[in-house]
Amino acid sequence: MPGTHPFAAGAKAKQAHLRIMETTDLHGHLLPYDYHADRPLPTAGLSRTASLIAAARAEAPNTLLFDNGDVLQGSALADHLAASGAAARHPIIAAMNLLGYDAATVGNHDFNHGLPYLRRVLSEAAFPVVCANLLAADGAQAGQPLFPPYVLLDRVLTDGAGHRAPIRIGVIGLLPPQTLIWDHAHLAGRAITRDITETAAACLPGLRAAGADLVIALAHTGIGAPDHQPGQEDAALPLARLRGIDVLLLGHRHRVFPGPDFPPGEGVDPQRGTLYGKPAVMAGFAGSHLGLIDLVLDRRDGRWQIAAAQPEARPIFRRGAEHCIRPTVADAPGVLALAAPAHAAALADIRRPVGRCAVTLHSYFAPLAPAPGVSLVAEVQRAHVARLLARGPLAGLPVLAATAPFRCGGRSGSEAFTDIPAGSVLRRHLADLSPFPNTIQALRLTGAELADWLERAAGLFARITPGQPDQPLILRDFPIYNFDMISDASFAIDLSQPARFGPAGELAEPGAHRIRDLRVLGRPLDPLAEVIIATNSYRAAGGGQFAGTGPDRIVADAGLGIEAALIAHFAATDCVTTPAQPGWRFCPMPGTSVLFDTGPGARDHLHDVAGLNLSPLALGLTAEGFLRYRLTL
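Now predict its structure.
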């Protein structure tokens, strides 16, 4: 009989053990496979999380399973399904049906392929999908939620004495309000968003009035500032402070809670797994973990209440000796069978040749010097926008490009680097260089805004104390996709200065300026001069909060996807090369050194950054499998 888990033994005769399970940010990772590298990926895959789900169910008499969003975009398998119109049954939704999910919410990336596609795919779901703070913008439903804001689940619990009693569980779905910015092309005029905390507070009285014994916030949001801020992206802590929310299932940031990803802080207990005393879990990324919250519930006056809670994030892999990644579970056969046809089609698609390249395209040193792959994407964006504007009133302005690396280690792991060898370029390589379905758009910026754009990107780096050795260079919580560099711009970065902009793009230090000696096309940049910036649609609409962005600042949009532009570029060129870029340098700091972590494959490409004072440390690899270098400033 289920109920063998140690926590369940604490349930008394009139108490029940309820296990709540969460997946989050699956991003199309149905199988443990890296389509960018065309090789197995033991740190991901719902097929393996499914085995954890089965084991967790066998340990408890009462269970619920939820998904926290960002399911339908993020792997070549998922994107192939969207591009081909998907199969008669979407295999990811079919797998979730097979696993018996009780409810789900949507994440911001679920809109990347458009609202009609999302609606069609979710119509196959055998479970409710809820979201309270995404509303219709037009039509008869204007101002009404596009999805049910919450659901009431009526279940029957078995208590410690074997007696059965009903319970009503309210589940409210929430997503970042910035989704409207990030997917402006798909949602503008169709949807509006509302603040996470304010929306939840407005819904809670209705949930309780409807008889909810327990309220679960199924919130696609991270753990950020403790105090509520209007439009807050990472709103878990203000949510936890609301009376009426009992349990928090979180995501969005691809991190793990409880665990060492989070230091203790106001309201945050990363060991007990609580936010302001309430149980919470965040289950990593791509199926890397199964989030578990074990509850002991008391039945008093006909209602269930939480007597004790124990959160856990259970991994599908461990790092063993010599950094070997060892799976903790096998694949679930049922999910493998559902995935097989789509997996075969995705493999055929990613292995198609698209052209040839004369140089290796890698991202091992992208924070230190222009990366060849990033430079290639920048040139394709720049050339396309230049052609668009060639005969118009903006033809006389310089056209530059803003691009960032996407696969560059960090929290994605030491395996997550671009490394495309010279020679034949395949379809999967383009998805590596540009993994999101963004289009090319153009903005009109002043020189001052361009400087602030670079200041925002330079927030990647920690503030360095002059004269001190071996200080960490990179802030791990800074998303690498916000490290936008500008083509044909050269400058120095003064690491002794604090970052001018904070993590969310807010002006944090008005007097700080890290960017020095900024030149464009070899000439000092006039703050009042105007330039055109070719970028992607996510950034142009305001994603990342960079200076000069927003829908009203877009001056050109041909609707061409970046991947399609890359394919056209390779088709038109016998053997592609990457343009040389002037790049950036760090201001000298005598007696100062910093530590820089990269992928093990960087050993083969050290000659590409011969001008830097880089030296490998005799430490082998770090505990996470990174190769560590010392950079002398």
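The mean pLDDT is 93.
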